[in-house]
Amino acid sequence: MKEIPQVEALLEAMCAELRDFLASQARQDPLVVGIRTGGVWVAEGIRSRLGVADPMGELNINFYRDDFTRIGLHPEVQPSMLPFDVDGRHVLLVDDVLHTGRTIRAAMNEIFDYGRPASVTLAVLVERSGRELPIRADVAGTRLSLRPQDHIKLTGPEPLALEFKQAR
Amino acid sequence: MGTRIRGGWVVDPANGIDEQLDIYVEDGLIVGLGPGPANFEVEREYHVDGNVVCPGLIELRASLREPGQEHKATIASESRAAVRGGITTLCCTPDTDPVIDTPAVVELIHQRAAAVACARVEVQGALTQRLEGSRLSEMGALRDAGCIGVSNAYRVMENTEVVRRAMEYAATFGLTVLLFPEDPWLAQDHAAHEGAVGTRLGLPGLAETAETITLARDLLLVEASGVRAHICGLSTARGVEMVAQARARGLPVTADVALPNLFLTEMDVTDFNSACRVRPPLRTQRDREALRQGVREGTIATLCSAHQPHEPDAKQAPFTEAAPGISGLETLLVLTLRLVDEGLLTLQQAISRVTYEPARVFGLEAGTLSPGRPADICVFDPERHWMLTRERLWSEGRNTPFIGWEFKGEVTHTFVGGRLVYHLEEA
Amino acid sequence: MNLQLTEDGRLRHFLTIEGLDRPLLTRILDTAESFVGVGERAVKKVPLLRGKTIANLFFEPSTRTRSTFELAAKRLSADLLNLSVSASATKKGESLMDTLRNLEAMQCEMFVVRHEASGAAHYIASHVAPHVSVINAGDGRHAHPTQAMLDMFTIRRHKERFEHLKVAIVGDLMHSRVARSQIHALSILGVPEIRVVAPRTLIPPFIENMGVHVYTRLNRGLKDVDVVIMLRLQHERMDSGLLPSEHEYFRYYGLTEERLAVAHENVIVMHPGPMNRGVEIDSDVADGPHSVILQQVTYGIAIRMAVMSMCLGNPPAVEGGEG
Question: What pTM, to 2 d.p., does this model score?
Answer without folding.
Answer: 0.87
